[in-house]
Design a protein that fits this description.
With 291 residues, this protein is of the alpha/beta class. The protein has three domains: 3-86, Arc Repressor Mutant, subunit A; 92-161 and 266-289, D-Maltodextrin-Binding Protein, domain 2; 165-263, D-Maltodextrin-Binding Protein, domain 2. Helices cover 41% and strands 26% of the residues. It has helices at 3-15, 18-25, 29-43, 59-86, 105-115, 131-139, 184-187, 201-211, 225-233, 278-289; strands at 48-51, 54-57, 92-97, 123-128, 145-148, 156-171, 181-183, 191-195, 217-222, 239-242, 252-259, 263-271. The strands form three sheets. Strands 3, 4, 5, 6, 7, 10, 11 and 12 form an eight-stranded mixed sheet that branches. It has a two-stranded antiparallel sheet with strand order 1-2. Strand 3, helix 5 and strand 4 (123-128) form a beta-alpha-beta unit. The longest helix has 28 residues, at 59-86. The radius of gyration is 31 Å and the shape is rod-shaped. Belongs to the LysR transcriptional regulatory family.
């Protein structure tokens, strides 16, 4: 018993006419007759009664039809939905990204991509997270493509596409606020608003302080850029943050860090050994064409 046999059976059950059913199925009448006979032989029961030149579904055929028709309808709908997901014009892209990219980079990128006429109906499912969380989602096949720190390896390809400058920010009335640039050693004595352990920026900041052989004076540990900036604006400490869009909305002073110098790379990451649907491939190629 296979899909074609059940589909042929349902069409014949609905028409009760071999010629009409064969026409609807775009097959020959002998092929339809053979398929029904094979199905009846496998099930060990007659499904139709002869009625002149036509047939009439019997109680056994009706029982089978009641069971099979919903299953076939569900399979047909599933097929349509699956085809829609991979349709290069209307498909779906599961995209993950770091929190620091959420205010400008990601919205602008998606907007520009959708402005291309052939992309206008593509749908995005979005998720924010740390690089560690995104890496786990790749392993669990939950996402198609992401913007992360470097996670090259284990079947994941990471291509650098963007650099984020790191800045020191202070309250406007802070002793360091009259400066335009700074050596990190000058700031290490002050209380810091620091990123929490699970943040992608945490190991970067730790390495900066290690490179100058000093430890930060951590006042608060927080998760995201906006909250860090808010705490600095409230005069609760100073912080090292990426030069993100929206930073100018906070009443803080931005200082260029001249030593140690560091730029944070943002990577386009995807699983190179797994199937990539046409809309995802199109989006990936669009991003790479902008580098």
């Amino acid at each position: 018993m296979n899909f074609n046999q059940l589909q042929y059976f349902c069409v014949l059950a609905e028409t009760e006419h071999y010629t009409k059913a064969a026409q609807l199925l775009a097959i020959t009448q002998p092929s339809l007759t053979h398929s029904i006979k094979e199905l009846e032989k496998e099930l060990g029961v007659c499904l139709f009664n002869k009625q002149g030149r036509n047939v009439k579904i019997n109680q056994y055929g009706y029982f089978l039809y009641e069971q099979v028709r919903p299953i076939l309808s569900n399979l047909e709908n599933t097929k349509k939905e699956l085809q829609l997901l991979i349709d290069p014009r209307k498909g779906t892209i599961n995209l993950s990204f770091l929190h620091s990219l959420s205010q400008y980079f990601i919205p602008t990128l998606i907007h520009d991509f959708l402005q291309v006429k052939e992309n206008s109906q593509v749908n995005f499912i979005l998720n924010q997270g740390t690089t560690k969380e995104i890496k786990e989602d790749f392993k669990d096949n939950k996402i198609d493509i992401a913007f992360t720190s470097n996670i090259e390896g284990e079947g994941i390809t990471s291509i650098p596409i963007l650099k984020q400058e790191l800045l020191l920010i202070t309250p406007l009335n802070h002793p360091l606020a009259d400066k335009e640039e700074i050596d990190l050693t000058e700031a290490a004595q002050y209380p810091f608003i620091y990123y929490e352990q699970k943040s992608d920026l945490r190991p970067i900041l730790d390495s900066l302080f290690t490179s100058i052989d000093m430890k930060p004076n951590i006042a608060y540990e927080l998760a995201d850029d906006g909250t860090v900036c808010g705490f600095v604006a409230a005069n609760l400490g100073i912080a090292i943050v990426p030069n993100i869009y929206g930073l100018d909305r906070f009443p803080v002073k931005k200082l260029k860090i001249v030593s140690p110098q560091y730029e944070r790379n943002i990577y386009l990451s995807f699983c190179s050994h797994k199937y990539m649907s046409p809309p995802v491939t199109k989006f990936k190629d669009y991003i790479l064409s902008k580098i």
